[in-house]
Every structure is written in structure tokens, then in C-alpha cells.
Predict the 3D structure of the following.
Amino acid sequence: MLYHIYETQRSLMEPFTDFAQAAAKLYSNPLSPFSQSPVAQRMSAGYDLLYRLGKDYEKPSFDIPSVDVDGVGVAVHERIEVDKPFCELRRFKRFSDDPATLVKLKAQPVVLIVAPLSGHYATLLRDTVRTMLKDHKVYITDWKNARLVPLADGEFHLDDYVNYVQDFIRHLQGIYGNCHVISVCQPTVPVLAAVSLMASRGETTPLTMTMMGGPIDARKSPTAVNNLATNRSYEWFENNVIYRVPDNFPGAGRRVYPGFLQYTGFVAMNPDRHATSHYDYFKDLIKGDDASAEAHRKFYDEYNAVLDMDADYYLETIETVFQEYKLVHGTWDVRSPDGKIERVRPEDIKTTALFTVEGELDDISGSGQTEAAHGLCSGIVHKERHLEAKGAGHYGIFSGRRWREVVYPQVRTFIHEYEKPQKKAVARVIETPDDNPPRHATPAPKTIAAAKPAAPKAAESKAAAKATVKTTAKATVKTAAKAAAKPAAKQLAAKPAAKAAPKPAAKAVAAKVAKVTKVAGTATAAPETSSAPAVATRWVTPPAAGRTKATGAASPAAAAPTADTPALAKASVTAAPTPRTRPRAARKA
């Protein structure tokens, strides 16, 4: 019932917040007579503060239209790469019309940023994304608000989180060959589990893992967050913080840990600091300090925007990470999408480099909690690094000046140190300037069927080509000779003067043999160079002729494998003069 009471209260407060917003503008607009009052600034500031305390904060946008790369402006296009029921893999695609910059962008490392699912949206890492876009191709996990996910999409467990991360890593590996992973705060635990499971199966693991301020071992330097999780039982959390979504949302009936309860917990950790911040905002409005007031708005627009978490995921995280410490005890089992139970073994990770980052003043993940990953990943040798950012709190290690000046330079160096050449796209490029391998046009159905068989070895291809050419040429000579002999005999019997007729026929036969040989040679030469499974093309439907009218380039049909050569030869033979047409040509001559 608490969720329903909160929604009712918010609905009742909405008219008052709208009135406060209008009143703030009424007292601040220079054209309004109310702005001439001696207390106009104070009235406007008070109403503005009231509006911001009572308004409903929606999910903010990343709002990264462009970034600067070595003095060159690069446009950024944000789009959804993979859409799952509870998460979107968001891609920040960069464009540039500067050739040198474009070459540089294409060679940069690919980074998957796994954002936390702990109350706030992924936009909390906006500064992280903006900074990394200068030197990396960036993807980020954008988790959805559970109250907007219909019940028909099923439940979401901690195991699903781990499986999502594995799917996203495989997706990037399928495009580029490999990638780097950065996890911030809460996802350090499921990311370590995901990479461990991939290593245990023998799959390709990311080149590097960078873990920042996460509770790998929550027993070390416990904070207020850790104490709350350990002092309360699993049943207490289930009975006191789990509620069902009201009917006015798409996810009506879903069991969630509501965002407004999480926000209350955030504020309760430092109530004095938030009260002081709001009072300073009030004074900045009175003084007319627009820059400081705008900085306050931007921070709290992000901080106050919270999402609901699925109850199963939240409760399992409390139990696994903060109460039973299953990861450090080696007792964590994860269920794969096909229902198989697998044990998480970080020691199986061998080829992935590990970098851990902690803040000296972190009050959410205490000192040593993230560094504990090095002890668990005993299979990683000479590929480990740790950084403690002096004077940085929890948010300072991934946002703000210390992130940009202290943490990021070392993260960038670490990633580039273990970067490997990316897999190049085999197919022809369709989209132009882009920092990532572009999409490719899909070949027409006939082209796909022709290109599907695996290419034979070079020696076998040449032998097959020669055999096909000889066979086709012999068949053509015999057929054409028989066809030419009959009308020639009839003409000799009827008109003895037509003795020269066989010469043009012989020339035509020779020309046809050369043409068939040329076509057959072209068709059989394709397998030697077409080692790729399929080559993308701009053809929408296969053209009728062997070459295009505009460019004269070979069409998809002309570039077919050896299996299509007899069909081409047959088409050339039937085009030769027939016994019915030969006498007409002779009579006309």
C-alpha cells in the first residue's frame, strides 16, 4: 500500500508544484509588475525551491551532442544497439568529416561501460562517457525502470544480470573481435562473475577489466550501506521495502524496490549536506549567481531521478554480496539461460588484465573492497594494477575533476597497453564516415546461394577451372560444328557457288569458343579469391546481364562459384546460330 499512498500524494502535490513554478517565473520576469516588488527575488527564489522539492524527476538524457578529439569537433549520435526487456545496450557513434580524425577514431579501443543498477539511471555516468569518447568507442548498459516493464516480460534475477553482461560482451566481440570492460560500483560483482564463467567455459574474455568502487569483498572497511545490509535479515528487506507497482504504470503488479524509498535512503545518509546545498541554492538565486544555481540544478536533476528495481534482483544482491559473501567464499552458482548451474571461479581468468580503482574518501564502498578482486583472480599474472585516488569520494572516481585529471589518464593508459588489433570487416563498406565497422548490405537471395559454399583450395580451384573450360569448349565446338555442317551441306547441294559459307561459320564457332572460354574462366576464377563466407554487395536484385551497363563491373551472377559455370556455358551455347537461322543469313548474303 505504501507505493499507492506515495503515488496519491504525488498526484495531489502536482498542482501545487505547477503553481510554484508559475509563481517563480511571475516574480522573476522583468516584464511582470510583481518583479518590481522589493521582495521579488526572495519570493521567486522561495517558489523555485519549493517547485524543485516537490516536482517529479524523470529520466534525464545523456545529452552528448559532440566531443573534442585533439582540437577537432566530432559529432556523436546516440542509439540503441541491443534492446532487452530490462536493459538497453546504448552506443555512442561518432562522426567526422576530417580524414585524419576519422582514421584515428576507427583504430581506437572498444569499451563496454557497465552502469550500476542501484537506484540511479545510467546517465549518472554522463561525465564518464563524455571523457572516454575522446579516446575510445563507447557502449553503455542503460538499465530500464522496472515499473515500466510489463509482467509478461518475466522476472529479473541477479543471474539474469550476469547473463546480460555476457551477451553484451559477446555482441561486441562478434563485431570487433574483442573489447574492454569497465564496471562502476555495484556491477563490479556481476561483471567479475560474467567474465569468470566465460573463462571457465573456454570462451574469449575481454582484454581488460577495470573495476571502480565496487563491493567485491564487503567485509573490508564496512560502510553504512554494508552495515544496513548485514544488520537486517533477508526477510526484513522482503517485508519492508518490497511493494507492487500501482495500476497506472505498464509494470502494474510487479514486485519492486521502489525508487522513492531508495532516494529516501540516499538523502538519509547525509541529510545535513543536502539541506546545506538547497539553502545555498536559495541564496544563489537571491544574489543572481546563475552559474552556481545552474550547477545545483544539473546535479539534483540527476541525483533525484531514481528507478524501481525488480524485487528478485535486489533481494538476491543483498543476500549474495552483503550477507553471505558468496563470491569471496567461492559458493556462488549462476543459472545460465539454458538452465545449467555453473560455479563462479574467478581464478579461471587467465588472459584478461585487471585494474581496480578506489577513492580515498569513498563512503559507499570502503577501502580494500574493490582491491580484493586481485586476490580472487589468482590466475592473472603480471597484468594487475591498483589505484587509490587521493581526496576522491565515491562519485569522484568516475565523475568530476579528479576523474578527468587523476583516474582517467591511468585508465586510458591501461586500456591502450593491452589493446590488440580489431577484426576488420570483410564486406564492402556501405555507411561512410564512422568510427565503428559499419553495417553491410545484404546480398540478394541468389547471390547468397552462390556465395554460401566454402571455397576450395587454390590448386583444386585451378584444376577445376581448367577442366570446366576444356569440357565446355569441346562441347561447344562439337555442337556448333554439327549445327553449321547441316545447313552448309544443303547450301552446297542447292547452290554450288556458296562454297565460302563455311568460313564465316568457322569464324563464328571460333568466336563462340573464345567467348565461352572467357565466361567459364571468369566464373571459375572466383573461388580462388572468395575465401570469405559472403561478400556484401550493392545489388538489390541480380541483374539479367553478366555486367552492369553503367560501370561494366561483374554482377553477382557473373561472380558466382564454379557450381554455376555450366549454366553460364549453356546460356552461351544456345545463343549460337541454329540450323533454322543459318540458311536465312546465307540467302541474305
Q: What stands out?
A: The two ends are 102 Å apart (CA to CA).
